[in-house]
Amino acid sequence: MVNTDTDYGVCRLSLVPMRAEPGHVTALCGQLLFGEHYEVLEITADKKWLRIRNYFDRFEGWLDARQHHAISREHFDYINGANFKITTDITSSILYNKSPLQILLGSIIPISGTELFKMEEQFAFNGDSKNLGQKRDVEFLKTVALKYLNAPFMPGGRSPFGIEPAAFTQMVFKITGYFLGHSLKQQQESGRPVADTEGVAAGDLVFFTNLKDKSQHAGILLAGDKVIHVAEKVRVDQFDDEGILNPDTRVYTHSFTHARRILPAE
Questions:
Q1: Which long-range contacts (CB under 8 A, 24 or more apart) does 131-134 make?
Q2: What is the pLDDT of residues 144-203, one digit of tens each?
Q3: Which end of the chain is more exposed for a tag (fewer CB within 10 A), N or C?
Q4: CB–CB of 258/207 below 8 Å?
Q5: Which domains are seen in the chain, by residue range?
Q6: What DSSP string describes 98-159?
Q7: C-alpha torsion sign, points 252, 253, 258, 260
Q8: How high is the pLDDT of residue 182?
Q9: Cα distance between residue 162 and residue 68, in whole Å
């Protein structure tokens, strides 16, 4: 592997895999959604794989060079400061350089209001979206979370068609207008602590221990007694001071540890 002078890129496909190591048979560690931009940190000697860093959460992984869309440093810096739109439909259709493309919930489009920014490419979009930096309320957050309902669990996934627990919480808050880190460990440092289950409220980020394998887990409270989270799929289960109760089996699957409040108190 060789180093490269810093290069930059933006995702121009609906969903692009990021691998833990260079190669298609290596583990999926993340995904890029349409419109997400990144730095190129390293290339393999055969120039077939690029190690990249997603600008949004600084997460790194390997990208197939054939799916890399290069942009200039000037354009990269411009995207950093632009308040683009983020999509709020499960799927949307755009016209990109006169060719139709389906994009997914949480994709970034370079449009602000009705104004198309001066771009190196051409876009036309007709769908539901909001300004990326606009912070919305708890009801909006719950609506976004429920759009992922029944999405299958997939390690490294970040879309309504396959997602992991930390990506689910991150994406729901991102679309609502709030930043969470890539990992559950990072997310546990976000927002403000909630003292105990008596103080939790809808919209809180709640953390658990999986009773089966003792791993960390997280979800989002929809109400005082309902939590949405990713198990074998995105699902809504019962919540109380003990943890997550599967309403079908009447068995506790996760024990409650603590909660964080990300949105401001209403």
A1: 131/83, 131/84, 131/85, 131/86, 132/83, 132/84, 132/85, 132/86, 132/108, 132/177, 133/83, 133/177, 134/177
A2: 999 999 999 999 999 999 999 999 999 999 999 999 999 999 999 999 999 777 889 999
A3: C
A4: yes
A5: 2-74 (2.30.30.40), 86-130 (no CATH), 138-261 (3.90.1720.10)
A6: TEEEEEETT-EESEETTEEP--SS-EEE-S-EEETT----HHHHHHHHHHTTTPBB-TT-EE
A7: negative
A8: 95
A9: 22
Angle at 228 between CA 26 and CA 238, to 5 degrees: 130
Rounded-to-integer distance, Cα 11 and Cα 14, Å: 8
For residue 172, give both structure tokens.
Answer: 């729901």
What is the C-alpha to C-alpha distance for residues 112 and 244, in angstroms, rounded to an integer? 40
First CA to last CA across the chain, in angstroms? 52
The pTM of this model reads 0.93
Query: Which structure tokens are listed for 43?
Result: 């290339």
Secondary structure (DSSP) of 17-66: EEESSSSTTSPEEEEEETT-EEEEEEE-TTS-EEEEEETTT--EEEEEGG
Nearest to 203 by CA among 217, 228, 221, 185: 221
Strand partners, 102: 93
d(CA 228, CA 235): 6
User: Which tokens go with 22?
Assistant: 């260079």
DSSP state at residue 179: -
Cα 245 to Cα 232: distance, rounded to the nearest angstrom = 15
Number of continuous H segments (helices) and E segments (strands) in the chain = 4, 24
Lowest mean pLDDT among 52-66, 68-82, 112-126, 209-223: 112-126
Tokens 């989002």 belong to which residue?
220
